[in-house]
Amino acid sequence: MQVLLDLFFTFAYLALISVGNSRAVITEMERLVVNVHGWMSHQAFVEAYGLGLLVPGPNMLNVLLIGNHVAGLPGAIVSGLGMFGPTSCILAGVAWFIKKPNPPAWIKKFHAALSPITIGLTLATVWNLGKDIFLKDIFSTTVCFLGLILSIRGLVNTSWIIVLALLVGVIKGLLFN
Average pLDDT, whole number, for the chain? Predict the structure, then answer.
């Protein structure tokens, strides 16, 4: 029972501090899941994050995979409730309070002020998840930068970039290992 409470409060905390983009808290999520609680390894966390990106729906479905890894189906449910429940209630309350189709000007200013923080935290996430790969070998570094270019230019959907990287990795494994 304690692990279910830990899962809920861990992901509720992460949801409440996610500013502008929930991907910005991936570094903190990894710290809590891997280092603090020891629920999974760095590699398992990266795999759960990548798989969560492939699934249609909210971009944080990896929390369900983490919860499932820790405590099975109850863990997945509790993790999802923690990640999506509190913020959904807060947003519903704000929407009810404002009762207008357009947000007030202060909300737009607040969002604009937090954009640099979101960008910095997202870059920290990229470095934290990819630090073991970036300088591993020239092949891995090239795949990372090609994925970055395709993503930045908006040429290919992120899910397809992951599938293409997977296929390239399989081909490399078959040919060179």
Answer: 86
